[in-house]
User: Fold these one by one.
Assistant:
Number 1:
Amino acid sequence: MATERGRQSGWNTALWWGGGFALFALVITLNRDFETFLRYLVLGLPQGAIIALIAVGYSMVYGIIQLINFAHGEVFMFSTFFVLMLLVPPEGGQTMAPALIGATVFLIVACTVWVLAERIPARWMRGAVAVAAGAAAAAANARLMPATGAGAAILPFFAAYALAIVYTCCLGVTMDLLAYRPLRHSPRLIALITAIGLSLFLQNFAQLIWGSSSRYFPASVRPAILGSQQVTLTPALSLSRLDLVIVVLALALMAGLQLFVMKTRTGRAMRACAQDRVTASLMGVEVNRVVAVAFALGAGLAAMVAPLYVLRGTPIHPQMGYMVGILAFSSAVLGGIGNITGAMLGGMVIGIVSAFVPLFDALDRFAWFEAAVRAGWITREGYAEFVQGFGKPGQYQLAVAYAFMILVIVFKPTGLLGKASAKRA
Amino acid sequence: MKTWQLSARLFLPFVAASLLGGCGQPPAEKSGGATTPAGAKSPAAAKQPAAPSDGPIVIAVAGPFTGDSAELGLPLKMGTQLGAEKINAAGGINGRKIELRIEDDAGNSADAQNVATRVASDPRVIAVIGHYNSSCSLAAKGAYTEAKIVMLSPASTNVTVTKDSDYVYRNIFTDDFQGQSLADYIAGQLGLKRVAVLYDNDDYGTGLKESFRKRAGELGLEVVSETAFARETTDFRSQLETVRSSTPDIILIAGLYKQAAVIATQARELGINTRIIGGDGLFSPGYISLAGAAAEGTLVTCPFLFEIGGERAQKFAEEYRARWNKDPDAWAALGYDAFQIIVEAIKKNGPTREGILNYLKSVNSPETAFDGLTGKTYFDAEGDCKKAVQVAQVKNGKFVAAEKQLTDAAPTTPPAPKINASPDLPTTTESKAAEGK
C-alpha cells in the first residue's frame, strides 16, 4: 500500500514537472520558434550534465554521513590542476611547485594505501607499506611531470586525464581520513566547519603551488574527439563534439552509478549505511570503508568532467571550484540531498534553467511582446525604462537558477526526489 | 582604469563619508574649525611661506608600491624616477635638483588619505603625481585640495575623481570618454551600423555601456542587442545565442579580459565570427594568452601604445629597459609624462604650488597642449585630460596599433611612423590593472 502510494505520488510529480516544462516549451515556441527553444535547451545540457555529476559527490557523502562536504568544489578544482601539472611544466616563478606537488602526491597516495591496506594487522607494517607506496608514487610522478624547456616529452592527454582521476580519488579518500574521520562522532556542526576550513585550505594550497593566474590546457594537447568542431543534429541545431561527449559520458556515468549502487555489494552497503549507519555496522558493514568509497567515487566523478569543463572554456584557477561547488550543492539540494538520482536531476534542471535566462534579454522581440505593444498594454519606452532600472535578465542567470531552487524548496522542502525522514530532519 | 577594482567599490561609500565628514569644507574658507587632523594641519601648511628657494625641488609620487596592486603601481614610480634622474643628470632645473618623495598608498584608500595628509603638510612638496587607483585618488584629493597642492593622476579613470576640486588633474582618459570613443570608432573608422553589446554587470561595465549607448544614439548606430552577464559567469553560450540572433556587425564587450577571453573563445566555437571590440578592460596580455586564436582581430581602446608614440616612445622604452631591466608599460609612459608636465610647469612658473596650478590651468586647448610621449595632453575646466584614445588590435598574438586610429582625421597629430618595434614590446604594455577585481 505504502509503495503504491509512493509510486503514484512519483508519477504525479513527474507529470506536473513534465507538463510545466512542456508549457514553457510551448510559450517559447509560440513567441519565437521551436528551434530557438531547442537551441537554448542544447546549450544547457552539457552545463547541466557537468553540474549533475559534481552534485552527486555532495549528495552521496551527505546520504551516508550527513556531512555537506564544502571542499568538494575544491576537489573538482584540484583535478584540473592535476591534469595541468602532467601536461605543462611549472611556470617560471613557481620554484616550490615540484616539491609541493611531490609532497601532495606522497600524502594522498600514502593515505589511500593506508585505508586500503586494512587487512594488515600491525600498524607499523601498514604504515610502512603506505609510506613506501606514497614515496614510490611521488618518485614516479616526478618522472612523469614534464621538464621545463622546449621539446620535452609530455604525456598524452588521456593518460594525464586518467592519472588525474586516480589522484583525485586519492585526494577524496585522504580528505576523509585526515579531516572527517576523526570527527565522525562529533556534533555535525564541527564537521561542517571543518569542511569550510578544508575548502579554504585547499584553495590557498593550490594557489601556493600553482599561483593565482588563470590558465588553460595548451591547445596542442587537445584531442580531436574533444574538439570544438560542430556536430550537426538538424540544419539549425548543432553542438560541439566536446559537448556531445560530455552529454553522452554523463549519461553513461549516471547509468553506471545507478547500477553500482543498486546491484553491487558495496552499493548495497552504501544504501544500508544511508538508511542507518549504526545498524549497518552491527550487521557487519565496514562503515569507514563505505564512506571512503563514497568520497573516492564522488571525487572521481568530479574529476571525470573537470577537464572537459575546462575545455569548454573556463580557465583553471584556484578559485574555480567555489562557484561550481555552490551551484552543484544547490543542485543536490534541489534534487533532494542524499538522493543520487535527485542530484543528477537537480543538476540538469539548474543547467537548463540558467541557459534559458539570457533568451529573455531579447524579450522585446517576442511575438507576445509585439502583440502587447500593439494592444497598447505596454510601451517600448516603458520597457526600456524598466530595463534601465532593473538591468537585463542575462545578468541574473545564477540568481534565477537559485531562485528556482528556493521556490522548489519552499513548496517541497525535501527537494524534487527527496523523501521526508525524521532522522535527517 | 582602476574604477572597477574591488577596493573602489568597497571603499567608495566610506571614502565619500569621510570626505563629507572630515574634509567637506570648501577650500576657500578653511580658516580653522576643522575637525580632522587633515583639516587641522593644512591651515598651518598654507601659512607656511612658499617652498624654500634653495635646495632640491620636492615632488611627491604616490601610488601602490607594495601590496596587491604593487605590480601596477611600480612602473609609474620607475617612469617618474627615470625622468627625475635624467633632469638631475643634466643639472636640474635652474641649477636646482629634483627630489622625488615616494609615498606608498598600498592601493588602500585609508593609507592614501594618510599619505595625502603627510604630503600636504610638508611645504617643500610642490606637486603630487598620483594616485593610481581611483579609490585612492578619491580618498586623497580632499587633503590636497585644502593644502592647495596639485595632484596629477596618470591612472585614475573614474569620472568623479576630478570633480569638486580645482587641484585634481589627470593625464589619462575617463571611463565615459572611452565609451564615447568606442562609438566614434565603430561609426567613423569602421563604418559599421549594428552593434551587439555584452556587458559586465558592474560599475565599469555598465558605465562603459551607458556612455557608449548615449554616443551611439547620437551617431545613429543601432544597438541591436544588449546582454548582461555576472562576473561569476563561465558559460556565455546562451548570451551569445541571443547576440547571434540579433545579427550584429560587431560585438562590443564592456568587461574585463578574463570574461572577454572566454566570450571570444565560445563565440568562435559557436561559429560567430563577428569582430569583437572592447575597452581597456581587454587590454592585457592575459586576454590573448587565454583566448588564443579567438583573440585575433579584436580591437581594444587603450591609453597608450608604444608603437604609436613614435621615436620618442622607442627611445624612452630603451632608456627604461637600460635603467630597470624591464619593459615599460603604458603607465610608465603616463607617469613619465605627468612628471614632464610638472617639470614644464616649474620651468615656466617657478617651483611653487600656485605656479604649477596656474600652468595646468593654462594648458587648456590643443594649441597650448603639452606634447609628451603619449601625445598632446591638455585639460578641460574639470581637470580631465582631452587626449585621443588609442586603438590596438590583436594581430599574430600581440597588441599592435590598429590600422585606423581615432586621430586619423585630426591634422594636429602626426601620422604614426613605421617603426621596427622589438617583437616583445607591445605585449608588455600590460594592463595589469584589469586583474584587480
Note: DSSP finds 13 helices and 14 strands in chain B.
Number 2:
Amino acid sequence: MENFLALAAGLGLVWALGIALIGALFRFAPPRVALPAPWIAGCGWFVGMIATTLAMRALSVAGIAFGVVSIGAPLLAITAIAGWLAWRGRAAQLRGTLREAARALHGGGLDGWQRLAWRLIVAWLAVRFALLFAEVWWRPLYPWDAWTQWATKARAWYEMRSMVPFAGVSEFLSAPVDALLWFDAAPHYPATMPLMQTWSALLVGRWDDALANLPWWLTGVALAVGLHGGMRLMGFRPLAALAATALVNTLPIVNVHVALAGYADLPIAAYLALGTIAALHAIRTRGAGEVVLAAALLLSMTLVKNPGKAWLVMLLPAFVVAALPRYGVRIAAGLLAAAVFALLVGARSGVTLLGYKFYLQPVVHWGALFDAYFSYANWHLLWYAAVATALLGWRHLLDREVAPFTLAVASGLLFLFIGFAFTHAGQWVEDQSTVNRATLHLAPLVVVWMFACLRGLLRGSGEPAPAAAPAS
Amino acid sequence: MTESNPPPVTPPVPVESAPADASPRAAAMPVRTVALRLGAVFVAALVACALAYLALAVPGKWFTGAQPLAWGARDLQVTRGAGRIVGDELHVLPNDPSGIIVVSVVTKFASVDLAQVVWIAIDVPDDIEISALWRSDYKPEALNTLPLPALGGRLLPAAVGKHAAWIGRIEGLALAFRGPIAEPIRIRGVIVRPLDAPEIAKERVREWFAFEGWTGTSINTITGGADLQDLPLPLLLAAAVALAGLAVAALYRWRPALFPLGALGSLVAFALAAWLLLDLRWAWNLARQVEQTAATLAFRGFDEKRLAVEDGPLYAFVGKAREAMPKEPARVFVVADSHYFRGRAAYHLSPHRTFFDPRVNSLPAPQALRPGDWLLVYQRKGVQFDPAQGKLRWNNLAPVSAELKLAGRGAALFQIR
C-alpha cells in the first residue's frame, strides 16, 4: 500500500508538473481561444513526462545520484511555482473550468439519448482502463523488446542511481573488464521511457518491473483525455469528441500496448496525435503559448523513439498547408515529390537512413498487409473506415480545415509504405512483427482526420450530422 | 512581477454543420424508432452476408444431420517414430534418420456426409512433408493420402468430402510427417466433421470466440480469436456495414423520411454498431485474460510472480547466480540456444553488465573473455568444461581457464581466470 501511495504521488507529481507548466505558459502567453480543460489535462501528462526526464538527465550530467528527493524535490518546487503562476489572479476562472470539466464528465449539458450515450461510453472506457490497469499492475515485464532494449536501461539506471552509459558490441567488448559500460540490444535508443521506469522504481523503492510500467497506463489515460480535449479544441461537440476518443482507446493494438507495457510505440502515437493537433491549432491562432506547447509536444517525439525524427519531417507538408492555405497544397505536394525523389536517388545509391537501408526494387507483401489491417483484430474497422472516408469524402480532403490532416495522414502512410516496400522492414510486414506497431504511431491521427473529413462531408451533403438529436 | 489581467478569450465554436434540431425529419421521429429501423437493416445485411458466405463455403448439402466425431491424444498410436503423452497432447519425434513419423487411430464410421478431417497439431515445421491418410472398407488394401499444408505451426483442415477414395466406412485415419523435425510436434487429436451449414457456422463462431491469451507475438498482432480463421469477423462486419449502407442509400433516395439520419449518417451508425460488436468480443477476451492473470499473478510478491511465469526456472537459477557473484556490476557473457533465454537471463542479471547476442545463437570468441569476466550458460549445447584442468571450451576453439561457480540443471556459471 505504501508503494502504491508513493507511486501514485510521484506519478501524480509528473502529471501535475505538466499541467502547471502549461498553465504558467499560458499565463505569460495567453491563449487566443479558450482551451478545453481536458486538452490541458491530457497534454499535461506528456509535458510532465518530458520535463521529468529532462530533469533526470540534468541530474545525471551534474553527477547527482537519482533518488526520490533529488528528483522529486526540484519537480515539486517547479510544480509549485508554475502552479502558483498559473493560478494567481485566475483562481475563479480556473475553478470554473474545473467545475465545468467535472460537470462534463457526467454528461452535463447533454440531453436525452446523447447524455445516455455519453455515460455509456464513459463507463465503457472506465471498464476498459480498469482491465488494463489490472494487467499492468499484476504482470511483470512481458514483451520482447521491453526486456532486451528498453527496461534494460531502466534497471541499470535504477540500480546505479545514474544514467550509466550503454554501448554497442565492439565498444563493449573492447572496453576494460572493469569499465562501467553496459550493453543491450539497442544501446542508442532514447532514454525517456526508461527514465520514467527508473522514476517509478525509485518511488516504489525496489526494482519491480510490473509497477515500473504504470506510466504506460497513465499514457493511455492521458491520451484519452487529451484526445477528447483536442477534438473539443477543433470544435467538435462533446459527444463526437468522446466518440473519437473511444474509437482510439478501444483499438485492440492500443490496448495491448498498455496491457503489455514496455514499448515506446504508444507514447509516440500520443505525442504525434496531440502534437499535430496542437501545431495546427497554433498555426491557426498564431498564439505564442500555443506555438510553444506544440513545439514541446512535437520535439518530444525525438526523445521518445528514433522514428520520432522521421515523423517530425513527415508532418512538415501538413504544417505548410495549414500556414499557407492558398499555395500550401502545391508546396506540400512539391515537398512530398521531392522527398520521394530523394528517397529514390538514395535507394539507387544504397543509402541508409535511421538504420534502414533503401532498395530500389520494391517488395510489397500485400497479403500480409491486408491481414494486418483488414483481417486480424488489431484495428477493429479502422482501416475500412479510413478507406471509406477517403472515398466518400474525396471532395473534402483538401478543404481548408481538413487538408492539413489529410496531408499529415497521407505523408505518414507514404512514410510507412516506403519503409515497408523499399527497405528491409518489408520482412517485418510478412511476419507481422512490426507492421502494426509502426502503424500504431499514426492511428490516433487517422481517427482525428476521419472525423475532420466526415464533418466536411456532412456539411457538404446537407444531411443531418450523426450527432444531431432526433426527439427522444 | 506584475499581475496582468488575462485577455478575453473566445470559446471554441462548435462547427458541426447541423445543430441538434436541424432536421425536421429527425425531430419528428423518436430515437427508438430510428434505432430499431437501422438495427433491422443492419441485422438483415449481416444475415445476408453470412448466408452469402455459407453459399460459397458449403460444398454440398446445407443440412446433413451428421455429427462431428473426435479422437483425443490418448486414442492415437505412434506407428512410426517416438511419442509420449504430455497432458492432453501426444508429443512425437522421428526415431530414425528417415525423419518419418506416423500417427494413427482405428475408426469405424460412415464417410457419407463427413467431409473434413482436422488434425489438431502444434509446432509443426512449415518445411516438412505432411500427409493425411485413411483406409476404407471399400478398398481395404489401399492407403489413401492427401497432402496437408501447415501454416504458422498448425495444420490446415483436409477437405476429403469430394475425394474419390473417401467412400464407404472409414476404418482408420493417420497423419504422416517426413523431414527435418528437431522439436517435438504436439498432437491433440483429430476431428472428422460434416461441412454442412450449421457445422461451418458453428466452427466460424468458435474461431471468433476462441480465447486468445497473451503470447510473445501479442505485442505485434492480435488475430482476434483462433490463430487460423476462414472468415475473419472484421471482414464479415465490414461487408455487412457496406451492404446496409447501400441498402439505406437506395431506400433513402426512394423514401427519405424512413431514415432521418440520412444515408451517410446511417452508414456512420452502422460502422459504430459493427465497431461495438468487435469491441464487445475484444473486451470479453481481455476480461478472460485478466481473470487468468489474476489467478496466476495477483497479490504475489515480485519474486513469486517471476517464478510463476514462463521462465521461472531460469529466474530461479539467475537468482542463485547473483548470489554467487559480487555485488558490484560485473561483466557477464550469457549464452543459450534459445534467444529467448539469452535475453531473459541477461535482463534478470542486470545491473550486472551483461552481454548476449540478441539475434544469433553465437558464442563469444575466447579472446573476448578476460580474467574476471563471468559466463552464464543456460541450456546451450556445445560448451564443455573440464573440471580437472579448469578449462572451458566451445566450437573447438582454444580453451579458456575458468572456475565453475554454480551448476544447475542444464545451466552453469563460470568465472574466467
Note: Chain A has a mean pLDDT of 92.
